[in-house]
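Quick one, tokens below:
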């Protein structure tokens, strides 16, 4: 359904997977990868957004690198240049905003969830709504004061990697009067939305509900 596109990134060029609805137009959503890279799962999520009427762009944060090995994925996550990632995300947001003519949504999963919130904090009114699926990255810090978009945070009940940070996020957003809603799904684990996982972490019921809430959130705010 989609195609590979290139966009400007602070004097350089980055690329991503662009999926459009049958109508050819719609509200824009930036879809940000897990630590595995821009793989078939993330492209499939972009396609799902397109099927729901959105124009979805999944930027390639690893610039061509993809893995299915957890150890390698962990190394790639830690090697991510956050400064370059900020530029790539800004480029993707500007590209999609110009293409659609309106502020865009951001959504990401695991590492991408952290980058979704990071991008929303750094790009002001260009981001109209932010969804963070159990986001975490040890090198990412948030410019809470720069956030103008409402945030939907989606968390798993059993997630030792991410959950220790969530109360701090809630406190920072609440103190600043930032509109946000945090939902924790009971009896779920990190990456419960990823239907390609065979380790038992995928939870079909929670994933379906989180997907519907994400769509409703974008339709209300974009």
């Amino acid at each position: 359904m989609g195609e590979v596109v290139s966009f400007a990134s602070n004097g350089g060029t980055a690329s991503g997977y662009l999926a459009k609805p049958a109508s050819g137009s719609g509200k824009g959503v930036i879809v940000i990868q897990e630590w595995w890279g821009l793989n078939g799962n993330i492209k499939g999520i972009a396609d799902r957004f397109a099927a729901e009427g959105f124009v979805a762009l999944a930027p390639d944060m690893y610039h061509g690198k993809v893995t299915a090995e957890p150890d390698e994925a962990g190394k790639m996550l830690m090697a991510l240049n956050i400064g370059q990632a900020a530029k790539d995300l800004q480029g993707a947001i500007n590209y999609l905003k110009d293409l659609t003519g309106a502020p865009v949504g951001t959504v990401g999963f695991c590492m991408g969830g952290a980058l979704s919130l990071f991008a929303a904090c750094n790009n002001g009114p260009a981001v109209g709504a932010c969804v963070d699926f159990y986001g975490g990255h040890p090198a990412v810090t948030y410019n809470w004061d720069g956030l103008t978009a409402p945030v939907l945070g989606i968390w798993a009940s059993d997630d030792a990697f991410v959950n220790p940070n969530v109360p701090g996020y809630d406190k920072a957003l609440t103190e600043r009067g930032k509109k946000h809603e945090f939902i924790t799904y009971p009896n779920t684990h990190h990456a419960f939305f990823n239907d390609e996982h065979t380790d038992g972490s995928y939870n079909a019921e929670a994933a379906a509900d989180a997907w519907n809430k994400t769509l409703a959130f974008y339709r209300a705010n974009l």
